[in-house]
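Re: beginner question about structure tokens

> Can someone show what the tokenized structure looks like for a real chain? I only ever see the sequence side.

Sure, here's an example I had lying around. Input first:
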Amino acid sequence: MKIESSSEKIAVAGHHILRKDGPEAVTMRRVAHAVGLTPMAIYRHYEDRDALLNALADQGFRELADRLHRRKANGDIERQLAEVSEIFLDHAIENPKLFELMFLKPRPGARKFPEDFTAGASPTANVVAEVVEQGMKSGHFRHDSVWEIVFEIGALSHGLIMLYLGGRLGATERQFRDLYRRSFRRYIRGIRK
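And the corresponding structure tokens:
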């Protein structure tokens, strides 16, 4: 794929720096140097560093949402939720620095619970909400707040991932994946009807 525009070149360079060295390393000066532009030239495409970081995070959310939408949405509700949780986990393990920017770093423009979620502004949480709502409508899960459950599922997922990526678990990746799956099974049992 040939990159044509300066904006695309900036985004690719920003992604490369982010994935290699983390959100703090993504500076206008460093990205400009990687692209062969002056730092001031980048401001024609991105208002400031926050705008660039938001663009990088938004791209990560689009990638993750695309993976979620490509999944085979069949099987029982619990299998669907397990599949969704695995996609989140795979995305985080494959892109730990991007995951950090998307879900853990404070940044202007980041979606907030509950307003942005209930308004349908989260392309990834919307997928989880559809499965949870389907589970409630079918009687598999007891009736409750769909969005609170989605937020709790996200907190469980992101919290476990954060602890693993932060080196807080003395576990191999395989052991961590097993713990992650067991944790979800326990949570799902708790919301069954």
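Each token stands for a local structural state, so reading them left to right follows the chain. The radius of gyration is 19 Å.
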